[in-house]
Amino acid sequence: QVRLVESGGGLVQPGGSLRLSCAASGFSFDVFVMSWYRQAPGKERELVAKVTGVGAADYADSVKGRFAISRDNDQHTVYLQMNTLRPEDSAVYYCNAKYVPMPEWDYWGQGIQVTVSS
């Protein structure tokens, strides 16, 4: 059974930092592309960052230079370090696992709230 469990969200002041974690189980973690998406109220879900099994990362323009995605293939965990947070970063953040050769192997976590507010 595939599971993606996010943790580390919460309330933070503008300019602060948070680190999200996503613990994965039930699939061959190291061959999946792991991503973080977010969805703010009234907006579409958007890709924040993704990382391949060998560690190649890509970011949305809005978070470049502030966020860093990483993964630990031994621990089956992906992280999102978020620095210099802004109110517009407030959203529900979702962990995603995708196996590119098989598009139907596309899994989601339950989401975790991040709120940036003073």
Task: Provide a descriptive summary of the structure in words.
This protein has no helices and eleven strands. The strands form two sheets. Strands 2, 4, 5, 6, 9, 10 and 11 form a seven-stranded mixed beta sheet that branches. The chain has a four-stranded antiparallel beta sheet with strand order 1-3-8-7, with no helix packed on it. A hairpin with a 6-residue loop joins strand 4 and strand 5. By secondary structure, the protein is an all-beta fold.
Q: What attributes characterize this protein structure?
A:
118 residues; 51% strand; globular
Strand segment count: 11
Approximately what portion of the residues adopt beta-strand conformation? over 45%
Q: Any low-confidence stretches, pLDDT <50, length ≥5?
A: none
Topology order in helix (H) and strand (E) letters: EEEEEEEEEEE
Helix content: under 10%
Number of helices: 0
Q: In whole angstroms, how far apart are the ends?
A: 40 Å
Alpha carbon gyration radius: 14 Å
Mean pLDDT: 97
Structural class: mainly beta
Please write out the topology.
Blueprint lengths: L2 E5 L2 E3 L5 E8 L7 E7 L6 E6 L5 E3 L7 E6 L4 E6 L8 E8 L7 E3 L3 E5 L2
Parallel strand pairs: 2-11
Antiparallel strand pairs: 1-3, 3-8, 4-5, 4-9, 5-6, 7-8, 9-10, 9-11
Question: Brief overview, please?
Answer:
Helix content is 0%, strand content 51%.
